Amino acid sequence: MNKCLHQNSPEKDWLPASNGIMKLHPFCHKCGVVRNISSDHGREVGYFINSLSELRNHMERKGYKISKAQMRLIIREFEEKGLDDVYSVTFSKQREGFAEIVREYTGVSEDLVKGFL
To answer: What angle do CA 5, 54, 102 make, to 5 degrees?
Structure first.
């Protein structure tokens, strides 16, 4: 899957914001994806890698090991699901998806994962 390197179109479209009020939204002129303009903007992959490292250190102190392979698989699935697209994905959606992926690969509760985000 080729990822789009989003570029704002010089034009904007009137669309409802998360509160229902109509606002001008920029969109990518290459793929047409509408940019997230809310305060709940997405975070870069590095933010989630750092959080995962902190979780790993915490779990190692408790006697549970998260391997480097598990970490790579978690980040890979995060990217494959498109959650690394900070242009259009909200942080809350990234947070939910990341917690679900980590739970799937490690068995750590979603609440504990979210505590590190």
So the answer is: 65
Per-residue pLDDT tens digits for 46-99: 999 999 999 999 999 999 999 999 999 999 999 999 898 888 889 999 999 999
Q: Which residues contact 13 (CB under 8 A, 6 or more apart)?
A: 24, 25, 27, 34
- Give pTM, 2 decimals: 0.81
Amino acid at 44: E
Separation CA 90–CA 53 (nearest Å): 22
| Concatenated DSSP letters of 59-73 | HHHTT----HHHHHH
Query: With contact defined as beta carbons under 8 Å apart, do 102 and 115 qualify?
Result: no
Give the whole-angstrom CA distance, residue 65 versus residue 62: 9
